[in-house]
Write a structure and sequence with these properties.
With 423 residues, the protein is α+β, with helices and mostly antiparallel strands. The chain folds into 3 domains: 59 residues, Arc Repressor Mutant, subunit A, CATH 1.10.10; 166 residues, Rossmann fold; 143 residues, Beta Barrel (Elongation Factor Tu (Ef-tu), domain 3), CATH 2.40.30. Helices cover 28% and strands 26% of the residues. The strands form 7 sheets. It has a 6-stranded mixed sheet, sandwiched between helices. Helix 6 runs parallel beside helix 7. The longest helix is centred in the last third of the chain and has 25 residues.
């Protein structure tokens, strides 16, 4: 740079142009979670928390920097500053761990259909299963309500059908839905003398929500006042139109007492399974669903599972929710010890270090460390979810206030059940 001379002949420093600061770009869109504090929101909006607190105070809301607000509340606050909000997508670590590549079609082989039998209480659902299995299960039921989900296999013309027995009572709605999630076909049992009842409609809704095919078994056709056509007419209201009436739903008249129509029902199930082309890869690490679990005094944690993919072997390292371990023993639905259970087969699993929740995915792993890591990840995420739920739950003061005002009545109960899923 050349030096300049002023008129007096002295050296003059060159003038360096001052760079003007560009105005800070205003935040227009922010990404925030379902719940956050005022401090979190202020940080996201690039402003002081005191500014937001002052604005809220003037609007009649007293808050601190640590006050928690919902996404909707944050959205309203941000809108006052012409800032748009986007909801943060929460990554489900468990679902990420459960992700896997699609199966190679050449590794797939036919598997037995898994059938859930649903229906209104006392419409003969369990008696129907009892006839099919040729075992006396009905006498074990207390008050006509099945207390636990049982899984059974039946041999039909050298083929196998797996049946899940789910409660038909309204009190066990969640449990019935849990059973429907594991199945391919739902057999809806409706009594020919009684017709469609509230639990019948619930069962239809659960089956549809689970995406399973429905076959209607019109039971008690041996009774003098049986009217199967009335049942067919009633069910058309729920878009279950018999195939012989031009619809898509198979109806079979049966009697769990005499055995009438049972063979036709089983044939219909197998035909439906053929249409669905049910397949699985038996030569891979197993995956399945926990149908029921309990703590047995002699055996320890026991899980009744349905294998859906692969084959579960004695000695496999497994995890199911927060539980993990090594398969110590496998027992089939006949009470026999077996070495392995393939796709669509139920088994009692011994060897877990804790009782998993019904509905959890049971996964076989290459190593014990992998199984433990999966269980630990589940625990960590589940703990976060519980904390989140507790924040949303009513506090004790609110509860007592409602009780004092008569909005909530107090009833002390002790609930006892044989297995976890019955509660």
């Amino acid at each position: 740079m050349r030096e300049r001379h002023n008129r007096s002949g002295r050296f003059q420093k060159p003038q360096i142009p001052v760079k003007q600061e560009e105005p800070e770009e205003k935040i227009k869109v922010i990404t925030i979670p379902e719940k956050l504090t005022i401090r979190d929101l202020a940080d996201a909006m690039h402003m002081q928390p005191s500014e937001i607190i002052k604005k809220l105070f003037l609007a009649g809301k007293v808050m601190t920097v640590n006050s928690e607000i919902t996404y909707e509340e944050a959205e309203d606050i941000a809108a006052d500053y012409e800032i748009l909000c986007e909801k943060e997508e929460k990554v489900d670590e468990i679902q990420e761990l459960l992700k896997e590549d699609e199966e190679d079609p050449k590794n797939l082989v036919p598997r037995p259909p898994v059938v859930v039998v649903m229906g209104h209480v006392d419409h003969g659902k369990t008696s129907l299963l009892d006839y099919i299995r040729k075992t006396n299960v009905t006498s074990k039921e207390a008050g006509g309500i099945t207390q636990a989900i049982g899984a059974y296999t039946a041999k039909v013309k050298d083929r196998t059908i797996t049946f899940l027995d789910t409660p038909g009572h309204e009190a066990f709605t969640a449990m019935r839905l849990r059973g429907a999630q594991a199945t391919d076909i739902a057999v809806l049992v409706v009594a020919a003398d009684d017709g469609v009842m509230p639990q019948t409609i619930e069962a239809i809704n659960h089956a549809r929500a689970a995406g399973v095919e429905i076959i209607v078994a019109v039971n008690k056709c041996d009774k003098p006042n049986a009217d199967p056509d009335r049942v067919r007419q009633q069910l058309t209201k729920y878009e279950l139109i018999p195939s012989d009436w031009g619809g898509q739903t198979e109806f079979v008249n049966v009697s769990a007492k005499t055995g009438e129509g049972i063979d036709d029902l089983l044939d219909t199930i197998l035909l439906q399974a053929d249409v669905m082309e049910l397949t699985a890869n038996p030569n891979r690490l197993a995956r399945g669903i926990v149908l029921e679990a309990k703590l047995d005094k002699g055996k320890g944690p026991v899980a009744n599972v349905l294998v859906q993919k692969g084959t579960l072997h004695v000695g496999d390292f497994i995890s199911a929710g927060a539980a993990s371990g090594k398969v110590r023993a496998l027992i089939n639905d006949k009470g026999q010890n077996i070495k392995s259970a393939g796709p669509s087969f139920p088994a009692m699993v011994l060897g877990l270090n804790a009782v998993p929740a019904a509905g959890e995915t049971i996964v076989a792993h290459e190593t014990n460390d992998e199984a433990k890591q999966f269980a630990e990840t589940y625990k960590a995420q589940h703990k976060e979810e519980l904390v989140e739920e507790n924040r949303m739950s009513m506090n004790v003061e609110d509860l007592f206030d409602q009780m004092r005002e008569g909005k909530m009545k107090e009833l002390e109960l002790i609930v006892k059940a044989d297995v976890q899923g019955s509660v």
